[in-house]
Structure prediction request, 408 residues.
Amino acid sequence: MWNNVKYDFSGMKLRSNFSKESPVWLLGKCYRRVESPSSEITELGTDVAAFHSQSDLMNGDEENFEAFKKDFSSRLWLTYRREFPILNGSNLSSDCGWGCMLRSGQMLMAQALVCHFLGRNWRWDCDAIPNTREQFIESVNHRKIIKWFGDKPSKNSPLSIHTLVTLGEESGKKAGDWYGPGFVAHLFKKAVKLASEENYEFDTLNVCVAENCTVYIGDVLQESVDSEGRWKSLILLIPVRLGLEKFNSVYAPCLTALFSLKQGIGIIGGRPKHSMYFIGFQDDKLIHLDPHYCQEMVDVWAPDFPLSSFHCRSPRKLHISKMDPSCCIGFYCATKDDFYNLIDTVQSLIVPSGKSNNLGMEYPLFIFDKGFSRDSTFSPQRLPPKDLEYSISSTDGDDNDTEDFKII
Prediction:
């Protein structure tokens, strides 16, 4: 109860405050409010980014403010839970107070799985009853994805917090410890690999984690092809550090630009010791899902288990300057062409405009290397300047600097 009061989850009502002029980006989709010429009703239009093709643009008649709310509430929301089976090697039956980064990582992976099995344009309708074969398949896949994150030690829930904690023990972590975004990325790489041994549906997925802010293209291409030469859909996770004790503002335009990419599945990070799952932005505010709401465990293996606690109707925002410099960026590439397109598109977005040192070297968010990590005899020459060293903050940050949107 105190946790939910502390993080202002008492009401959970949508209070959305959007600028009428500024576009809102949400995982590659753009929404902007414009005045209707025929009435006083405010609607959402589209915003054109120079690097987006015409086929990526949305129809203004179909995309409106209600569409944004539906898009947001369709993302899977995975939060603290209580009264689940005791975690291995502990007496804990809840992750409240320590598991927020694991939950944020689960939401990032859930978005990748939604894109993989349902598609980015899929929307959840809480009142709809499937009455066509396509709707029935979507409903089954929706529930199946949630089951994979079920809070129980089971091979049928390969991405559960129980599985993640067990995998973390191999690296010295235990239940109750706090996990960083880079560590969580490697946990999910292991979890998906293990899941593929038990579940054929994970055979078509490959998780790659960048090393030292470098994506080795040779490694990605080699790992993302099965024994018969077929491409496995790629989940690319890139841990980065973007400041000393605070987020370095020179990277703000680069970071927000990533939310306009169709391959983007979000960013896990947050405030110091307060993890969040970032999925979009408007102006200088990041839109996020917060895992700190502690809810009772749901038995996802019960017939027709309730879905409402896995979807959030209340978008929150955080000023980008409040963001912790440690985060992990995620991309999903269904095809090899998607991966090559990502490489070509992202190059111009990840370098801070006009920012270089006295030797003319630039400091992008991350880089692509055409070779293999095994061939690298030294760390990539992408060392950050002194004002971009790692964060050393250890405070929990009890202040709640996030803001709810409010409808104008």
Remarks:
- Confidence is low (pLDDT under 50) at residues 34-62, 379-408.
- The chain has one domain: 77-403.
- Residues 152 and 366 are 36 Å apart (CA to CA).
